[in-house]
Amino acid sequence: MIRKQVQKDGSVKITFALADVDGVSLISDLNGWDPGVHPLKKRSNGLRSVSVMIPPGQIVKFRYATTAGDFFDDPEADAFEPNGFGQTHAVIAC
Q1: How many domains is the chain built from?
Q2: Which stretches of the chain score pLDDT less than 70?
């Protein structure tokens, strides 16, 4: 699940949430594709999620990375594009 919430200052809070996935992080061009920056944390509703603030009009390229070394895209992304490694990454516009 991806939820976008426009804030009073025009920035966009994006919440990335997944069910039934342990040890997963959001990797993106926002965080240098570093899995240590935005790990999804377990919530009381059983989902794992992380939220990031994005300036209005920005496009974010992202994937999820597991601690096992697997990568996957979110099917709810706005678009997908080749990532240069024979796979894709997801794209979301704010």
Answers
A1: 1
A2: none
Q: Are 2 and 14 in contact (CB under 8 A)?
A: yes
53 lies in which domain range?
A: 2-93
| Residues 63, 64, 66, 72, CA torsion sign | negative
Q: In the prediction, which pLDDT does 40 show?
A: 96
What lies within 8 Å, CB to CB, of 5 at 6+ separation is 12, 13, 14, 15
pLDDT of residue 22: 83
Q: Is the dihedral of CA 21, 65, 39, 82 positive or negative?
A: negative
Q: Strands 71-72 and 59-66, how do they pair?
A: antiparallel
Tokens of 49: 């999620």
Q: Which helix (H) or strand (E) holds 26?
A: strand 24-28
Q: Read off the CATH number of the domain in which 49 is found.
A: 2.60.40.10
